[in-house]
UniProtKB/TrEMBL annotation:
This is Polymer biosynthesis protein, WecB/TagA/CpsF family. NCBIfam families: wecG_tagA_cpsF (TIGR00696). Belongs to the bacterial sugar transferase family. Residues 278-465 form the Bacterial sugar transferase domain. The keyword Metal-binding does not apply. Keywords: Exopolysaccharide synthesis, Membrane, Transmembrane, Transmembrane helix. The keyword Transmembrane helix applies. One of its GO terms (molecular function) is phosphotransferase activity, for other substituted phosphate groups. Pfam families: Bac_transf, Glyco_tran_WecG. The chain crosses the membrane at residues 252-271, 283-304, 442-465. InterPro entries: Bact_transf, WecG_TagA_CpsF.
Amino acid sequence: MPFDAAITATATAPFHADTQDVAAAPARKPMKRIPLFDLAIVDADADQAIDHLLDGQRHRVAFLNAHCANVMARDAAYAQAMATADAVLPDGIGIDLAAKMTGQQLSANLNGTDFTPRLLREAARRGLSVFLFGAAPGVADQAADKLCLDIPGLRIAGTRDGFDGAADDEAAIDAINRSGADILIVAMGVPRQDIWLEQNADRLAPKLSLGVGALFDFLAGRVRRAPAAVRNARMEWAWRLAMEPRRMAGRYLVGNVTFMARAAAHAVASANRDAVAKRALDVALTGAAILALSPLFALVALAIKLDSRGPVFFRQTRVGRDGRAFEMLKFRSMHVDAEARRAALLAQSDREGIFFKSRHDPRVTRVGRIMRRYSIDELPQILNILKGEMSVVGPRPSLPQEVAAYPTRAHGRLAVRPGLTGLWQVSGRADIGAEKMFDMDLAYAASRTILLDIALILMTFRAVFSGRGAY
């Protein structure tokens, strides 16, 4: 069914992103990006990315997933299109794993199927219009109907299919430009959509263009999306394989293995030997620790449950490398109301500086005092290490409110992964003041080597058994 004429008519007076209101907006900081597969991948959450892409400047957006990386390796034109895109957004668990292999961590999964409707909601709020180009005849119209139902006020400037409608580039570009659309969404699949956008970038009037793969098919109900639980588990690829096994077998069964091998090779090529050795040491030590300490973990869990009410584990938001928040895991050594009572106890800190520590903290349980004496409460952090959020050796991760109070120079300690042990931990732990701790952590960040890590690990055993500064 052709797109509703009434809706098309709504687009006759489109709002252009180069109007005075948008042009007058204050300059924003560029989005953070990380290097991966010779591309600069956007490292931002959805709101930050949308705010940047709707800033009134010209942006050509591409999405990178495991399949895209595989196609890039064999298609030079597509690789060129990806390399010249203004913003490459990370799509899927494969890219997240590839980033972690290189010691980096992405802020969010910005897959096109979820990100694009979210971007269009903000576009509707700002009065911007969109043109849908691609997919089989009639699919773009159905996708437009669905978007208008889901996003009140969204202005559709026009639609065009990706078959006969894409056969003549001149006619397609003319239709897009005459529509007055602010945003162009192209759904012709990889690599075609991104190559088309790159080759015609200078001839297209819309300020923002995106290549979105199968989005129109999802919106039109032609392809069923995975349930939310499957998507949240980052297993949507498995759902698509189950729905279309013949078409998707090569992409996912062979492609995923190929991609992981490519990601591993890229990680080795891009990392220095010390970084690879450090991560290998982390994985080897924590893997061995899980096997060796499992009986101890069970005994500690039982002791905690018998001693006081509440969960065995304590989870707390800490700040890690590059200022990223993560959930740090510990054995619970305090009563369950400890966080609520913290503010009232700050004046009783026995430690100099911004970090709170009290020798006689009334929140600590009987079992907790024993665990803290020998740092047993810290052992569950081996799981944080396996996940890549921490390292065996590094600065201790701080609370967000502590990081907010850092002097400027102290932010240098966030340049490396936080650790289970480190220089100041083996030098007196809580007996070390904040300023001296900063000096030690900054010195470690500037001169870390695998040999230094091994030395600090060995010194940790002496520090644990001496109990100095542990309370």
